[in-house]
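Morning, I've got a small favour to ask if you have a moment. It would help a lot if you went through both lines with me. Thanks so much in advance, here it is.

***
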Amino acid sequence: MNQLPVILVQGPESAQYLLRQHGAAKVRRWVVCDAYSGGMFIEKGIPFVDENFYFDNGMRQINEINAFAHRLSTEWFKDVSMVYPNDCGVRPEMLCARSFNYYFLSVLNAFYFLERIHQKEGSCCLVTTRFATQEDGEKFSFLNSESIVPILLDSLNERWTFKYSYSYIQQESNQSAERFPWLSSLVIKMFSSITHIFCRDKILFSGNPLLLMPVARELKQKFGVSSLQIREISRMRQIASLAKRYSLLMPGLSCYQRKNLDFNESEIWNTFREKRTFCFKGVDFLPIFWDKIRMFLRGETQRMVEMSREIDRVLDQVRPEYVIVDEDVIPFNRSLVIAAKKKNIKTLVVSHGLPGAPLGFVPLQADNIAVWGDFMKSTFQRWGMSSDKIIVTGCPKYDKLNIITRIPVEQKYSFCEKYKWSMEKPIAFVVMGVLKQDDFIGFAGDVSPSSEILQSADYFLRIAQQVTNVNFVLKVTPGLRSVDFFKRLADKYDGLSSNIKLVGSGLAVDLMNISDVVFNSSSSACLEAVILNKPVVNMNFSFHPDVFPFAEYGLGASVRTFEEALKLCRDLEEGLLPLEDWVASQEKLIAPFVFSRDGRSSERIASFINRN
């Protein structure tokens, strides 16, 4: 048996430590599933594998995990009676259903990952790391600072009999704490209460202004109905910036003091054991989930109740006739919608994005939901949503795209002059996914996994060196370590080629407008490009099926390998791509995905609100 270790990297801190300890040693395999760490290995020229190596045919199990985690997140607490005073008409556990969903998904996907490693590697020598920081009961968080893989190994290794070991490492803190949290909470509450005094309007909006404010403007212009924008605020430093944009401020969850609640832990534990609440595929995950659940019940439930009471009080003071949100699954918006419905205030969700997974959309708490097109409607119906709750309107944030005065020549000239590019060379715009902290969440298949983002960046850095008569623009989502990540990749190829630029600021639609072709990965940005009449190439370099079936509805081209992407870019260079045919074919996406090109989505939503 090969006794060389399989080394499992869990994030950048883990990568740095394990490379120092084992970088020069012989190993059986390096396993790296996050883009940040992968960039380090590419920079050093050390070969590694990611989840695609193990999940070559694992989608059935992943789909079962997705379904189980979603059901569990909305039902786990139903097996126990309330252990806390609650007069708000909703279980606080339900307000955090999405966060529990993410947490359950992370643990279950990590478990399945270990299953797949065992199937391929056997009972090998497995080396990894564990964060030395312990999650303090006074600082509950859903963030996975507890190192899921070592916890699973400690609890369930009798299944795999890995010869495992892990080293304790320190976790970098990315959270900037308020110096005087009690003072911050007091100031926020006082300032928020002042805004409550002067606010009296019929419509209350909570959510993304780019999505909701076009509806607010239509209500004002066409029906003379005024509205308020509400925003949850958690830090003093937010007051100055948010007060200019939002008319009504509310204290965030962190402004409410934690009150430890005593309850019979052994009784609840035994109930979960007897009911087998957390059993999946014959494995009881209660011992792994218990600390998180116990800490939530003990320290978070009363804060949730206090937040709900404050929302209830503000609704009595402001007395709106309609509450409109961009989603009703985050704790604040869900509490707002539930409190409004108790007072017979009508509620509406304006869909914030395409539905990749149920957890962002169902169960629906609001009376109705405005969706972009029939694809979204049929998806929600498949997930159990009643059709009489769904109104097909189109997407308000796309209204201006439909009527925008396009001046791509002038925009392209300005952009090319900035980077000293030739106007004669075609521009390929590459839209990649968002880099996330938790790698195991990406296994679910509803977003681009971290490993695919790494592949996309690596592929196009290489393609740009070979296809020199095409200019490439990579849209980089600002975030933790993003600049460092791309710099590591670029350094591997002696820096960025002159024909590729990383752009982190500005709107994606402006970059699409100057481009000749758009490469898109599991993003609704595809629809923006289609509306702008830009040919779109669907790219998917992972083992997952496409998140959205754009290709099935008429998208012109798709690539799944480096070789396919390279050939397509060479054909673009040679002028061999049927770009006009692709644009014509893409028009089939308009009706099912965005309803219409008429730019009147906001008007349809405003008319529905006015009628009701």
Q: What stands out?
A: The first strand starts at residue 6 and ends at 9. DSSP finds 25 helices and 19 strands in the chain. The longest helix spans residues 97-121. The radius of gyration is 25 Å.
